[in-house]
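note to self: dont lose this again. the chain is below, predicted strucutre after it. 148 aa total, dont forget to put it in the shared folder this time
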Amino acid sequence: MQQTIHNNAGNKLKNKRMKKLITIIVLTLTINCFSQTQGEMNTDASNAYKKVDMELNNVYQKVLTEYKSDLTFINRLKKAQRIWISYRDAELEMKFPAENKQYEYGSIYPMCVSYFLKGLTEERTEKLRVWLTGIQEGDACSGSVKMK
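---
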């Protein structure tokens, strides 16, 4: 009987140690698998911005191709795009006005810039996409946008 009690106590101790070991392993793997350094987050944000910027450029090129016979429109589109780029840059400077940005905003600054630019770029892409998708026939204010 005493040996059974001793074995049970030993098994409980082994189980307790095993649970602690498993808990430590799981926590270590969880932290290592899901955490990112600020540098990695900055890179991810930059890549996300680059992706939407490429989409904007693709949509812009498609609009240029689609409307190539309307030279007045093409010239105005190019002018508007140059102005939009200036607007985008001015918005960024307004959002983060400090001279020494890295010091003022910290290591998160590159990530914040990328996400801010990503949002502006997505908005611009959707505005330009209208010239490709068209608008409903009967819209009296369609201007240069083609009808669906």
